[in-house]
Amino acid sequence: MTFVRSLLFIALLALASAASAQFVKGNEAVKVTPDGSKKVETPPTTGALLAKPCPAATAGCSGGGWKMVETHDGLMECTEVYARPTTCRPSTYGSEKRSRVWVVKTRSEWKHCQYPDLGKGCVSIKSLPTPAVQ
Prior knowledge:
The protein is of the alpha+beta class. Strand 7 (109-113) and strand 8 (122-124) form a beta hairpin. Strands 3, 4, 5, 6, 7, 8 and 9 form a seven-stranded mixed sheet that branches. A two-stranded antiparallel sheet has the order 1-2. It has one domain. The longest helix is centred in the first third of the chain and has 19 residues, at 2-20. The protein has one helix and nine strands. It is globular.
């Protein structure tokens, strides 16, 4: 029975680790209000040169890695940083290994980060990101 409890504890710990890693600490795009609700901002499309949206459900639309974007629906993997309708799907982070970059806002500037960490490989969304398999 102790062995089974140990396995259960390890499994729960692994699930908690995966779930807690599904955000970027310090991402200014996500704000929790005093009443506990979340306000989420995505990169603005104003002034951006936008191609026709490439749906997340279409094979081959994630060239350059999935863009991990926090949205009103939670963490999504998107084919673009703007998270327009149809370009995102629910995150598979923690359950599937994929090439990813994390889209965050820090010091009022939108950036791509190589990992879900503001201190690791972050560059402006106006430059090419370096995705990592994770």
